[in-house]
Amino acid sequence: MNKIETQAWVLCDGQKSEAWETLFKKETISFDDISETEILVEPLFGGWEANMSHALDRKPLDLCRKRRESKVVLGNSGIVRVLKTGKKVTRIKEGDLCVFFAISHLNRNGCLDTYFAFGYDEPGSVGLLAKQTKVREEQLYLIPENSKVPLHQWSIISLRYITAWSNWKVAKGCLEIVLSRKECPSPHVFGWGGGVALGELLLAKEQGFKTAMIASTDERLEYIKNLGIMPIDRRRFPDLNYDLEKLKLDASYRKKYIASLKIFRDIVNEVTEQEGVSIFIDNIGLPVYSATLRVLGSPAIISTSGWKEGMNLDTIRALECLDRHIHVFTHAGRLSEGEEAIAHAEENNWLPQDNYPIYDWEDIPQLIHDYSDGKISSYYPTFQVNPI
Ligand SMILES: NC(=O)c1ccc[n+]([C@@H]2O[C@H](COP(=O)([O-])OP(=O)(O)OC[C@H]3O[C@@H](n4cnc5c(N)ncnc54)[C@H](OP(=O)(O)O)[C@@H]3O)[C@@H](O)[C@H]2O)c1
After folding, report:
1. Are 3-143+355-384 and 160-329 in the same CATH fold?
2. Which atom of ligand 1 has the smallest separation from the CA of 288?
3. How many whole angstroms from 343 Cα to the centroid of ligand 1?
4. Coil, helix or strand for 56?
5. How far is the C-alpha of 73 from the C-alpha of 7, rounded, in Å?
6. Which ligand 1 atom sits nearest the alpha carbon of residue 333?
7. Domain-by-domain residue ranges, the chain?
8. Environment class of residue 310 by beta-carbon count within 10 Å: exposed (0-12), middle (13-18) or buried (19+)?
9. Atom of ligand 1 nearest to the CA of 53
10. What residues flank ligand 1, with Cβ below 6 Å?
C-alpha cells in the first residue's frame, strides 16, 4: 500500500518526569494511503482544546502508553479541506470544507460507544496537528455554502460548541421536567469559566434565561459583559479551592476557604434574589463542586461535560435527593446534535463574537505556553495548519 508522508507536531513517549517541551516535536510522519471508505484531508484551522494540554501533561492519561505507540499526533477539533475520497464515500467530495467531529465509534443511538477519541486515545489516529490526515465520512459535517460564519470560527463549533449544544439540550430538558416556565418564567443559569460553558450560556440567554458567568481576568469579564451575560469576578473569592484533607487538618486553609465560600454564596444570593441557581454549568470539577451544589436552588440542575481540575467527587446523596438536584453528564455530542449545532450557529449567529488570536503552525509551542500560563484571554485558542 502507498504511504502518505506529511509534517506533524508529534508527542513522543517519555518518562513521567520529562517536560512536554522535550517530547513535543515537529517531524515528518507517514501513514497508509486511504482505503475505499476513508478521506484524505488537510486541516486548515484547529482549536487548542484542554484535552491536548492534559495529553502533554500526560495526566490523567499517558497516551503513548495507552495506545502502545511511540508517537501520537494530537488534535480533535478543527476544520479541514477534502483532498481525496475513497471509492465508497458518497456524501463528501474533493474540495469540500468541513467541520471535523472527533468520533471514533458510535453505538446505535448515535452516542460515543467507547472511550476512544480520534486524535487523542484512538490507536493509530493522526490528529489535526498534521498537515494531512485521513478520516471517515461520519467525522465530517459540510460547512454550509456561502456561510456567514468566518471560516476559522467553525473550529470552535467542532468540539466546544457541539459539546455545549448537547449538554445544554439535556440540562434544559431536565429543568423543564421539574419546573415549568409558568412557575419560574426566567430561571438563573450560571457557568464556571471555559468555552463550552460560554456556548451554553449564549444558548440560555437566547432562550430567555437570566445568565451569569464566572471569570478571573478583566479582559474576560469585560468580554462576558459585552455579550449580555452578567460577569462575576472569581478574584473576589480567591480561596474557593476545595480540598477535603486540608479542610480537616489545616485551620488557616479552612478559615480562608469558608470566608471565600461565604462571599461566593452572598454574591449568588444577591444575583438570584435568594432563589438559587436553576442550572449551573460546571466543567471544572473538584475545586468548585461542593460550592456549586450549595448555591443551587431546588429543584435545580448541575450540568457537566468536563473535569478540568478533578473528576473524583464526593456527593451526599441524601442532600441531593432532598434538594431535588439533577446531575447531568454528557460527552461531546450525538451525531445528529452536531448537525443541529452547525445549523443553529449558521442561522442564529451562535458564535462567541471574539477576536481571538490565531497562532501560526510554527508558533504552536508558544500557543501551548500561553494557554497554560493563562496569557490567552480568549476561551478559543486557535492555530492554523495550512493556508486557506
Ligand atoms: N466531554 C467533552 O466532550 C468535552 C468537550 C470539550 C471540553 N471538555 C472539557 O471541559 C473542560 C472545560 O473545557 P473548556 O474548553 O470549556 O474550557 P478551558 O479552555 O479548559 O477553560 C476553562 C476555564 O476554567 C477556568 N478555571 C480554571 N481553573 C479553575 C478553578 N480552579 N476554578 C474555577 N475556574 C477555573 C478558567 O477561567 P477563569 O480563570 O477566567 O475563571 C478557564 O478559562 C475541560 O476539562 C475540557 O477537557 C470536554
Report:
1. no
2. 32
3. 25
4. helix
5. 10
6. 3
7. 3-143+355-384, 160-329
8. middle
9. 47
10. 50-51, 159-160, 163, 192-197, 214-217, 220, 234, 283-284, 287-288, 305-309, 331-332, 379
- H or E element: which one contains 263? helix 251-271
According to CATH, the topology of domain 160-329 is: Rossmann fold (3.40.50)
Q: How far is the CA of 109 from the centre of ligand 1 (A)?
A: 28
Task: Identify the pLDDT of residue 115.
Answer: 65
| Cα distance from N-terminal residue to C-terminal residue, the chain | 30
Q: Which residue's CA is minimally distant from atom 22 of ligand 1?
A: 194
Look up the pTM and report it: 0.95
What's the topology of domain 3-143+355-384? Quinone Oxidoreductase; Chain A, domain 1 (3.90.180)
Distance CA 257, CA 254 (A): 5
Task: Supply the residue whose CA is at minimum distance from atom 11 of ligand 1.
Answer: 306
- Residue 163's alpha-carbon distances to 24, 131, 252, in angstroms, are 27, 25, 39
Indicate the range of 127-131, 320-324, 331-335 predicted with least confidence: 331-335
Q: Which of the four pLDDT bands, split at 50, 70 and 90, describes residue 24?
A: very high
